[in-house]
């Protein structure tokens, strides 16, 4: 039932904002004292048989790895990361935004190729703040606290980010 709620909420966002697809973005690693931060960006291409997608925090490591292996059949996704040195140089928030931007910029051309250049694309970022790079885009963008527990694309992005972190 949880999966249906994630898919339904995502459909609601698409309908509410007139979008063809949603790119979900989430990060992993910000809680670590040292080490890189990873970000995932994901657009779900096929919602059928995606019950394996859930917030990465509620999946075991084995479940996340299995979900990550299944992800390419149902979604386009990309990951980005920033090193511990980059975190030390610019701070954790800026480093997180850099990882998110790296994942987003890698994914966006593939999303446009899949849905077409005129597709209406929205972005939902897990968290309270919208990264500055999204403000400059001509794109609908939302920052939603706990979005990884609410939307299918963000939950999938959380799996990509967390799996890369591990």
Written description of the protein model:
The chain is of the alpha/beta class. A 5-stranded mixed sheet has the order 3-2-1-4-5. It has one domain (2-165): 2-Layer Sandwich (Nucleotidyltransferase, domain 5). The protein starts with a helix and ends with a helix. The protein is built from 6 helices and 5 strands, in the order H-E-E-H-E-H-H-E-H-E-H. The chain has helices spanning 2-17, 61-70, 84-90, 92-115, 132-135, 152-165, and strands at 21-28, 37-44, 75-82, 121-126, 140-144.
Indicate the topology.
Blueprint: H1 2-17, E1 21-28, E2 37-44, H2 61-70, E3 75-82, H3 84-90, H4 92-115, E4 121-126, H5 132-135, E5 140-144, H6 152-165
Parallel strand pairs: 1-4, 4-5
Antiparallel strand pairs: 1-2, 2-3
Number of domains: 1
| CATH fold annotation | Nucleotidyltransferase, domain 5
What is the percent of helical residues? 40-55%
Number of helices: 6
- From the alpha carbons, calculate the radius of gyration and give it in angstroms: 15 Å
Task: Report on the biggest sheet.
Answer: 5 strands, mixed
Which features does this protein show?
Nucleotidyltransferase, domain 5; alpha/beta; 166 residues
Quick structural summary:
With 166 residues, the chain is of the alpha/beta class. The chain is built from 6 helices and 5 strands. The chain has a 5-stranded mixed β-sheet with strand order 3-2-1-4-5.
């Amino acid at each position: 039932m949880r999966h249906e709620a994630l898919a339904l909420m995502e459909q609601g966002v698409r309908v509410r904002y007139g979008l063809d697809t949603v790119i979900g973005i989430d990060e992993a690693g910000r809680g670590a004292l040292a080490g890189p931060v990873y970000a995932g960006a994901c657009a779900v291409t096929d919602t059928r048989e995606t019950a394996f997608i859930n917030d990465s925090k509620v999946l075991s490591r084995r479940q996340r790895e299995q979900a990550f292996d299944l992800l390419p059949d149902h979604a386009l996704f990309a990951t980005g990361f920033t090193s511990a040195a980059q975190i030390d140089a610019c701070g954790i928030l800026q480093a997180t935004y850099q990882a998110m931007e790296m994942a987003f910029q890698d994914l966006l051309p593939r999303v446009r190729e899949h849905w077409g250049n005129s597709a209406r694309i929205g972005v939902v970022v897990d968290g309270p703040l919208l990264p500055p790079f999204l403000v400059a885009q001509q794109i609908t963008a939302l920052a939603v606290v706990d979005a990884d527990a609410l939307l299918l694309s963000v939950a999938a992005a959380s799996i990509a980010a967390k799996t890369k972190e591990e």
